[in-house]
Amino acid sequence: MVFGSMEDELIAISALSHYSYCPRRCALIHIEQAWTENRFTAEGRIMHEHVHDESRESRGDVRIDYGVSLRSLRLGLIGKADVVEFHRQPDGSWLPFPVEYKRGKPKADDCDKVQLCAQAICLEEMLAASIPEGALFYGQTRHRLDVVFDEALRQETEETARRAHELIASGRTPPPVYEKRCESCSLLADCLPKTIQKQRSVKNYLTRMLEEP
């Protein structure tokens, strides 16, 4: 399954997380180039900048690289991993273990796991390696969540990549669907889910009234 092999066809790995969380959010960011920073995104940005300021360190049988550039021509993705740990194996080889830093706490959906799995797939393609797992570090809980890259998560990640590519290539932003989590989205003022959804509901009602005999 190949989504693009040219540099200008690559999309950001983060687009998968945005799409998995909300396709409209993905479109606002990656099609309309909308971005509004709030306290939560600022805290997340500072956390990532702090991690990327590091370069490399070693701790016994673990070598740690920071801000690792990633690319997958098969899935058409490009981006950076916050941290990639390389764990020395009994045979002397080094097994990559990606770690993604998140500001908040574990989410009910798989958007963070999909982003991390996409990083692993990039590393596998780049290093001709097989990576079974990684971890998400959440700043609010100060705790690591281990993530196994099983077949179900890999399929979800590839399907999300395909849909994100199709959405961005279409150049069309989906209509809003208001949910409780919209209130914590940094793009709430750009998205206006309640206002636009209400306008669409009124328009649809008037259209149906005019079409009735």
Give structural notes.
It is built from seven helices and seven strands, in the order βαααββββαββααα. The protein is an alpha/beta fold and 213 residues long. It folds into two domains: 7-174, Alpha-Beta Complex (Lambda Exonuclease, Chain A); 177-213. Strands 1, 2, 3, 4, 5, 6 and 7 form a seven-stranded mixed beta sheet that branches. Helix 1 (14-21) runs antiparallel to helix 4. The longest helix has 20 residues, at 151-170.
Number of domains: 2
Strand pairing plus helix content: what structural class? Answer: alpha/beta
Largest sheet: 7 strands, mixed
Number of E-state strands: 7
Strand content: 15-25%
The stretches of 5 or more residues where confidence is low (pLDDT under 50) are 201-206
- What is Rg? 20 Å
CATH architecture of the largest domain: Alpha-Beta Complex
Order of helices and strands: EHHHEEEEHEEHHH
What is the overall silhouette?
Answer: globular
Q: CATH first level of the largest domain: which class?
A: Alpha Beta
Give the quaternary arrangement of the chains.
single chain
Helical residue percent band = 40-55%
Distance between the termini: 50 Å
Mean pLDDT over the residues: 85
Topology record:
Layout: E1 11-12, H1 14-21, H2 23-30, H3 39-52, E2 56-59, E3 62-72, E4 77-88, E5 94-102, H4 111-127, E6 133-138, E7 143-148, H5 151-170, H6 188-191, H7 193-211
Parallel strand pairs: 1-4, 5-6
Antiparallel strand pairs: 2-3, 3-4, 4-5, 6-7
Helix pairs in contact: 1-2, 1-4, 1-5, 4-5
